[in-house]
Amino acid sequence: MNWNEVRGQFPILNDYTYFNTARFCALPSAVVALQERYVEGLAHHGSWNFDEWVEKYENARAMASELMGCGAEATFFLPNVSTGINLASLYLRDRPVVLMDTDFPSVILPWQTNDHPIERIPRGEMFYDQLESSLREGNKILSVSWVQSADGFEIDLERVTKWCKAYDCTLVLDGTQGLGAIPFRVDPSVSMVFLSSSFKWLLAGYGVAIGYVSQDLLPRINAVPTLKSLEAGQQIL
Description:
Number of strands: 7
Shape: globular
Structural class: alpha/beta
Mean pLDDT: 90
Strand order of the largest sheet: 1-7-6-5-4-2-3
Helix content: 25-40%
Strand content: 5-15%
Largest sheet: 7 strands, mixed
Order of helices and strands: HHHEHEHEHEHEEEH
Radius of gyration: 19 Å
């Protein structure tokens, strides 16, 4: 890897030493150029090259799938993680929700707004003991950030996914603060909705988030079409 070429993609480095990617990324020149090309194309040509952008969209889906270690059929795009968690809170309505008491508001508020039974686990010395005790009751949803934006606390995914499998629970995971910086692979045996915005470590700016839904949840998350549903003409939200 030629680090001078990599650095050359970031014009911000001409003026700053930038360490704040965990808040918002510095956009690479290649990303800016592609976004400008898309907008200019709409302005001057409308939809004449629609097929070209559909191909790029599907290529991006394939790359997102590779990044998460899952199949493209379970990978989708959304405007942001808040939209994704709101959808999850609407479609997954039959179980109590477990939350970390200091988590980011977008991880907590959708469940509150949609009147789910909620249990908050305080993040202290007994956090993992209390979390497992709650999940052990079974048939719950754990909604949590992978990495906390306030202080960088990283939840132990190995333990959490193990408990979700053992106790028949579903994990709704906001991966925005981790994906792209920390290796991640979906475990297909875990009931999970995984979501990540792209304006941090994925270096894509605002306006798009990527997500994954496990096979057991696909029939319930109607906003995520499967090939069979498309062939059957199912209406997609």
